[in-house]
Protein: T9SS type A sorting domain-containing protein
Amino acid sequence: MAAGLVARRSRCGGSEPRADLGTGLAAEPGFAPEPRHVHRDRSRHASPCGALRGAEARIPGPGRARCAARPGASTPNREASRRRRDHPPERTIPGLFDRAPRRSGPHPNRLRAQSVHRTQAPLGAGSFRRPLGGEIAMRARSSTAAFPVLPLLTAMVVATLALLLLAPRVHAATFNLINLDAAGEGFNDPTPVAPVGGNPGTTLGQQRLNVFNQACFIWGQYLQSNVTIQVQANFDPLAPCDSTSGVLGSAGAVSQASDFSGALIANTWYSIALANKLAGSDLAPSSSDISARFNSSVDNSTCLGPTGWYYGYDHNEGTNIDLLAVVLHELGHGLGFQTFTTLSTGAFLSNRPDVFARNLFDRTLGLRWDQMTNAQRATSAFNSGQLVWNGPGVKANASHYLGPATVVRIDSPAGIAGEKNFGTAAFGGAPPNPPLQAQVVLVNDGVGTTSDACEPIVNAAALVGKIALIDRGTCNFTFKAAAAQAAGAIAVMIGNNAAGAPPAMGGSDPSITIPVVSITQSDATAIKGQLGTGVTASIGVDNSRLAGTDLEGRPRMYAPNPIESGSSVSHWDTPETPNLLMEPFISSDLTDVDLTQWAFADIGWVGPTSGVPAGSTPPTIARGFAAPNPFSSGTAIKFSLAQSGQTRIEIFDLGGRLVKRLPAAWRPFGMQSVDWDGTDARGHRAPTGVYFWRVSAGAGVQSGRMVRVN
Structure:
């Protein structure tokens, strides 16, 4: 899932000596190992609210999202809820992280019309590991999938709108939090704390509950359902967790349903919360819809050292872990950003595709996943850079959320030429625009692994004006890059030291001003093999494309080779910039549900609609967004002008009514930022809720959505 176009990852460079994780994996500085994904059995409550009914902490008001629970509450089925079964990992993937075990395969149940499938654990669930002093790695328990043709998806969106017109009024989604914590722990922890970042709680448990409520409120303003979404959740000490890495949490859908009244596509799985929304009734009233767990040990020094949860609403977490972003991400999986296909075999769950999978398209095969054999799907799941989301909502709105693409390309020799997959760094200079081009030179420090730049560089003269190729390992990413810059290199490529996706690189060093990227081990090996004849490469911005998309503007899905259990397919790919909530890594710029809301429109949730025209007409404006979003006091409308001219900015409420017109002004070409102080035309504070901004400039119009919170 990072911090801006260049400083995408908010990881900090950690201790360099590799930490053995017990799986043969190594912890790179600033890039901690991923947790094993624990697949758990969860008992369901006979009543979704149990003993909590009548003692609920709600966000009041019609149509408002809420999570209902209270500190100090426990459920009558507490012991039953703790009966769990660990599923052993299918295998450990070599590379950066401990990988989560994959599901063992489709559930044996045969399902009929209006069938509801119970999973043995939350599927599509996300699991987190926190690197030392830096970024959290988000992993979704995922598999593989399929997707229907664009006409079918378009028809699906049309069908959604038709149902909306014919159906009773649908309200903003509401959430009910089923607190599985016992008295004195988790959501009920009485430890006194000071309010922080807009969170008024004065005990640890209340602040945790408030953050969960806040995440529910935010999702509820983007989604619509007449059926309350039941979320069972608790804080527990989760293992493994030590001073360098640890499991942060997991979540996912408790069950799926297909062929129910209101289903948009026959013979297709829907996460139960989405199925309930489409059916207009609770298809599984005796169980929860989403199950989530979070690591209470993050708040003590034995887990991740001094790093702890950040409980504010303002995403000002610093080196701590933003719980709000984590909860938003995990709820996203439970709400439907997941596939139930088994990635290792390509098999659909009970031989049926899920609606998420029906939006997946493989550019190499030219096929939707529902057109493929199991073997083809299994291969597509690690077809890095070629697996894309083809839903019409996402494709039409990607330009509102993504900036121009960064490209890393080998220009010569012809045998290895072409664009390469790459990872970004949380430090270093912005990718140059236009791209830089230079010869690639392998670093030599003369000691041990001579190409890792962990000792003084002995071929410094050869690096002047060149792109330095450095092997990963042994010392911090920032140490390597700083050494290459000091030697005169104009850019750095860091080759991975294990098979798999190029790593996102953490660390902080403001003195590093040259661009730094990572590449795969196989690409680094290919470059080394051609250095004798000379290798030329380019690194920089391609203004003709959106970051992380193909030539048709379809965003890429995370599909590294080899498959990363718990990560592959059920996330956006990491080159998407600015970063998206449902990427596999969290970062400091995740303040909105961003493009993910349009993926939810594509799978059947109500998309963002209002009296404000969505999208943009021909290109005088590009890349608009509000930040921070959500916001509590004020926010800034940011957009890029393709040419100078007069601009007008208007703020509307959810019903399309004009709230305020900001002063019109002539603005120059380039990126713009205009503040809205959160007041209406009369100077009164606008109430909490959803708002839309609209920027007009010449023939161009662009609009976007933002949420005001308390």
About this structure: The mean pLDDT is 75. The chain is about 15% helix and 25% strand. The chain has three domains: 50-85+110-393+556-603, 404-546, 621-708.
